[in-house]
Amino acid sequence: MNDIETLVAELEQLPEVPREKARALVEATLALHRDGLARILELGGAPLREAAVHDGLVSALLALHDLHPLGLAERARAAVERARAELGAAGVHAELVSVENGVVRARVQGAHAEDARGTLGDALWVAAPDAVAVEIEAVGPVVQLRVGA
Amino acid sequence: MNAVSALRRFVREKPPAVERCELCAAPVGPRHEHVVDPARHEMKCACTACALLFPDGARLLRVRPRAELLADFQLSDAQWDALRLPIGLAFFLRTASRVTAFYPGPAGATESLVSLEAWAEIARLNALELQPDVEALLVNRVGAAREHYLVSVDQCYRLVGILRRSWRGFSGGEEVWERIGQFFSELKGGARA
After folding, report:
1. With an 8 Å Cβ cutoff, is B11 touching chain A?
2. Hey, how many other C-beta atoms are within 10 angstroms of the C-beta on A40?
3. 8 Å CB contact of B12 and A129
4. Does any CB of chain A come closer than 8 Å to the CB of residue B5?
């Protein structure tokens, strides 16, 4: 799957004519698949929608095409909730700060907060590929300051 | 960022609108029928069923796609000048009683009545028979071109649309003439004379 990111980056380096052709092809292919996914959702009704939301890959594809039954904020919140258990075990506290204009902001706090940023970021991008940006602030642990003996 | 989100930039803002029959609202494919309302100079997209439901003689006429390059068409410069059209681009439509020339411009098509004698001569010289209201003689005398086509009227609407959409400034700008050139090469490509 990483291939897609590499190819997209390489596409941007092409001269205009082949680049626009390739872009048009990808757009048309995605539009075709979007129509197909929409049709599948229609045919499957509520039980299929329910199952689709709980499958990581399908959920991501639905979000990509604005077909996901849950909104961006709801999905981001759920992703942070899911990550919280794993991060908590490592002594990191995770929370969602805001979702505004498609930008998802979250915070991780703890001794290993820097390491946790990547983990939470990946989880958020999977749940919300339609986000404009994902910003995660890492904050060090709360230290109890003691004065005097 | 991941593979799926990397594709997000290619997702079109809105899925392309489905074209619909303007008479019954049924979805139609990219290649669909057209009907014209000659009294209003109005063309509508139609599904096959609706196009067939309006037989000739009704208020709406079915447009059967047609584009023929008339390679041997005779129209001298003197005959053309006598028609007094301001640009080298025009189409001629016959109704039951008269012939009207239209020339496209940035604001749409402008009507210009053609004297029946002038038309009769041109039609006789070329044994031209147009289906009233749905077929037209399309003349392209832009630059060095001297081309004549027998086309269904939907092509005329298409040409008018191109001018309206792409005309810039006083002389139209490069883009519009490029698009007009493209229109005629497509017409020629599709027209088997």
Report:
1. yes
2. 14
3. no
4. yes
End-of-domain residue from the set A29, A64, A99: A64
CA distance B105 to A89: 72
Q: What pLDDT is stored for residue B192 in this prediction? A: 46
Same-domain pairing of A95 and A45: no
**Cβ of B113: how many Cβ atoms within 10 Å?**
9
Tokens of A148: 């005097």
- Any idea what the Cα angle at residue B147 is, between residues B56 and B67, rounded to 5°? 30
Chain A residues within an 8 Å CB radius of B8: 64, 129-130
Structural domain including A101 reads: 72-139
The helix (H) or strand (E) run that includes residue B113 is strand B108-113
Q: Which residue has the higher pLDDT, B27 or A58?
A: A58
Instruction: Classify residue A135: in a domain, yes or no.
Output: yes
Using the beta-carbon criterion (under 8 Å), do A8 and B2 form an inter-chain contact? no
Q: Which residues of B touch A104 (CB under 8 A)?
A: none
Contact list, A65 vs chain B (CB under 8 Å): 11
pLDDT tens column, B10-23: 887 654 567 888 88
Average the pLDDT over B45-61 and give the result. 79
**Contact call for residues B130 and B137 (beta carbons, < 8 A):** yes
Q: What predicted TM-score, i.e. pTM, was given to this entire model?
A: 0.52
**B14 and chain A in contact, CB less than 8 A:** no
Q: Are residues A117 and A135 in the same domain?
A: yes
